[in-house]
Amino acid sequence: MKPRVSLDLAGIAESLKSGAIKSVYVLTGAGASTGAGIPDFRSPGGMYDSLRPELITATKAERKRMRRDPINVVMKDMFFQNQFPYLEVRRPFILGTQQQQWKATLSHWFMRFLEEEALLKRVFTQNIDGLDYQTGISKELVTNVHGSLARVSCEGCGEEMPFDDFCAKVRTNVKDIYKTDPSAPAESSNINCPRCNRPLVKPNTVLFGSSLPTEFFEQTADLEQADLLIVAGTSLVVSPANAVVQMVPRDCVRLIVNKETVGQDLGIQYGKGATRDVWAGEISCDEAFLELIKLLGWQDKVRKIRHLLPESNQAMTKDL
């Protein structure tokens, strides 16, 4: 058995400093990117909730599907039938990613700090925003469970397209349903694959109805080495990513960084009955990781990159 860890943030910090915890794995969700101000697809008022199918290039039947359930915009069968709903809804997100409109948060930088201390073994991220890479984290340590906007390929033949080339096509070929880009075309036209010539080129995000990347299943095997699993900003309701919490050893500490308690149906225990699970409390991911940074004495790391943080994070760290 590993040495017992005090089940609070101070105990986790002490165990990291003492070497009792040597191997850290992380599972992240949307909450890790909230401080960046990235468009929200799922929450009330978000991009799915405010979807206006009548503005999208689609047939009457396709618009009816999207009204019934906006998730149809990212369904595999819909994309193979008509690529424009996906591309038109995602247009500002794709171009904003290229322009680095959103900045990596303190949560993302904490993962980089773990790598600098030779503690990080892997980040499994359910996010498609690619913000992890802005920190300079080693790409081989990041598993994009649901794919990433920052890589592009053909859904038909698999041929890759340089991200910048794809973005240039998005600007000239895909109309702006949000009416924020006056240079956008009035109507959408196909972006064809340079290899198979089918209009199936898109970011490497996993469409509903498609399988997850094989590397997710291959790389979860390493979880048996985990001393600490950090679960940050995810409701743990999407499978199979949520199964990560059950793949770590029985004596692995699990830190849940989420404003609400989650994962009870997966065996996570809170309160007096807890033996290895820690809840950071009703605070944001960035607030929780800032507290850990202070407990670990990593303030200098934050000072060096503070100018790269989103404004909300810069305000949080101004007194460091």
UniProtKB/TrEMBL annotation:
Active site: 146 (proton acceptor)
Binding residue positions for Zn(2+): 154, 157, 193, 196
GO molecular function annotation: histone deacetylase activity, NAD-dependent; metal ion binding; NAD+ binding
Swiss-Prot/TrEMBL keywords: Metal-binding, NAD, Transferase, Zinc
Annotated InterPro entries: DHS-like_NAD/FAD-binding_dom, NAD-dep_sirtuin_deacylases, Sirtuin, Sirtuin_cat_small_dom_sf, Ssirtuin_cat_dom
One GO cellular component term: nucleus
Keyword check for NAD: yes
Cofactor names: Zn(2+)
Domain Deacetylase sirtuin-type: 2-299
Protein name per its UniProtKB record: SIRT2 protein
Organism: Symbiodinium pilosum
